[in-house]
Amino acid sequence: xxxxxxxxxxxxxxxxxxxxxxxxxxxxxxxxxxxxxxxxxxxxxxxxxxxxxxxxxxxxxxxxxxxxxxxxxxxxxxxxxxxxxxxxxxxxxxxxxxxxxxxxxxxxxxxxxxxxxxxxxxxxxxxxxxxxxxxxxxxxxxxxxxxxxxxxxxxxxxxxxxxxxxxxxxxxxxxxxxxxxxxxxxxxxxxxxxxxxxxxxxxxxxxxxxxxxxxxxxxxxxx
Length: 223
Prior knowledge:
The chain is an alpha/beta fold. The chain has a single domain (6-216), classed as Rossmann fold (3-Layer(aba) Sandwich), CATH 3.40.50.300. The chain is 50% helix and 15% strand. It has a five-stranded parallel sheet, with helices on both faces. Strands 3-4-5 form a three-stranded antiparallel sheet, with helices on one face. β3 and β4 (78-81) form a beta hairpin.
């Protein structure tokens, strides 16, 4: 018997989906699974082992041995890669780009989807990413597709970087987001795509609290 709903939140980078998913999970007392962090952990593992993205045999061997855990913490999930807390490291710019590239590799996605489905089989989970509602959990109880205009998303990332003490220009962040949008939407395997039965949410003029309240209301109405 399922303990609760399976909730899928998809959308492009900086649309607000990850922060909203975390806060919504806390309010519902659900498990939050950061799918993007799992791919980032894979990218870091490849970097640490000096494995090129074309070296499929080495990548497969890495995946056979990889251990990725998501541990609950009041201030945010801890991402553990092979026993090491890599929560901060996987958010660096080099991993951001590499994770988008490694995510298109079929054997990597297969492994991650396998782990994600295992975690979500009993329900009471919230996942966000690019293909949660279309690939990972096509039968999710609720599917949301969050969007926002590019300049709003770039400003959000710029403010996040500024708070972390990173000196990045608004222009460079917007350029990276455009690259990620193009790469995510056009990749052959599990591209960024809106599920036909997803609920669209434009977050351009919404605060995070407004986003969380909006989704929470819809989910409560579905009970």
